[in-house]
Amino acid sequence: MKLIKLFFTSLIMILSSTDIAVADTPEPSNNIDYPVGWQKWSPIAVSHRTDNNTSRVILGNSIAVEAARTGKINPWPDGAILGKVVWKDRQLKDWKAATAPGKFVHAEFMFKDSKKYNKTYGWGWARWVGLSQKPFNDGGKSCISCHTPVKNRDWTFTDPAVFPTIK
Amino acid sequence: MKLIKLFFTSLIMILSSTDIAVADTPEPSNNIDYPVGWQKWSPIAVSHRTDNNTSRVILGNSIAVEAARTGKINPWPDGAILGKVVWKDRQLKDWKAATAPGKFVHAEFMFKDSKKYNKTYGWGWARWVGLSQKPFNDGGKSCISCHTPVKNRDWTFTDPAVFPTIK
Question: Would you state the torsion angle of the CA atoms of residues B114, B25, B133, B148, taken in this order, to the nearest 10 degrees?
Fold first, then answer.
């Protein structure tokens, strides 16, 4: 009896944890899968937009970071993923002249694959909104529209920040 | 004769590569070893200081990032290292209302070890300046002086940015 109870308890625990894991991964945006783990990617740059009062960090997967740090970004290599994480501005409590991240707005991504995404200029465009990471789905139209002025820079606004190189 | 030549060539190559590796790792700052690999740490926050026109990303080692994302930061856990990477402001070329990283200024770090650094409030304070990463050595006096207003926040200014949690 004890063994049967243990079996069902274990089964329920396994099923529950699976359900949670699946349920918690956001649905695709523009048919692109959520890039699980982006929150631990490395920085490529930061930016502060005073037109809409937002603070940003631009992150990359390992391929993008390697390309950024070595200046091989026009074009960016296939496999590179760039992430832009956006927060509303907030004044830093203990340093009034500093702007810091406030409310989380969204995380948006560019997935470089010159073949797969050849109809959208070599990039897959995706965005997940709010802390619930609700997928944005317009086929990338608004992303492409905004990024058109930088089409000669492989569609990216970001100038990678300069980091000291230590061998 | 060939073997002797090969031996000495190999020896010279080994010694040279060792020399290069050692020479390229910056000297300690305030007796603290350079945290090799910080350029690939994950972000904790960003900030933009309008009093001295600098853009910053605040990074952490894995212990610090875990603490930041779960709000366990007063006190920060032993082993946590926080890094603040500072650039002079630059206007983003293709988006005039955005400030982006320009010239690299320095990278400064706080190393949490409540026992080892108990004389300096539980933190080791270090800074490496410029792209050559020249160590700054004042025993942490200037760091501590500036951070004294936030001593009740375990000596840190940074409010970790909110990131969406995906399991």
Answer: 0
Using DSSP's 3-state secondary structure scheme, residue A29 falls into strand
Q: What contacts B114, CB < 8 A, 6 or more positions away?
A: B75, B78, B122
Indicate the residue of A65, A101, A149 with minimum beta-carbon distance to B161: A101
Mean predicted confidence (pLDDT) in B42-53: 97
Spans of chain A, pLDDT less than 50: 12-23
CA–CA min distance A39, chain B (Å) = 7
B53-94 pLDDT tens trace: 999 999 999 999 999 999 999 999 999 999 999 999 999 989
Nearest CB neighbour to B166, from listed A36, A149, A150: A36
Structure letter (DSSP) for residue B32: B
Between CA B121 and CA B127, with CA B122 as vertex, the angle to 5 degrees is 90
Residues of chain B with C-beta less than 8 angstroms from the C-beta of A64:
none
Q: Which residue of A has its CA nearest to B157?
A: A94
**Closest residue, chain B, to A41 (C-alpha):** B42
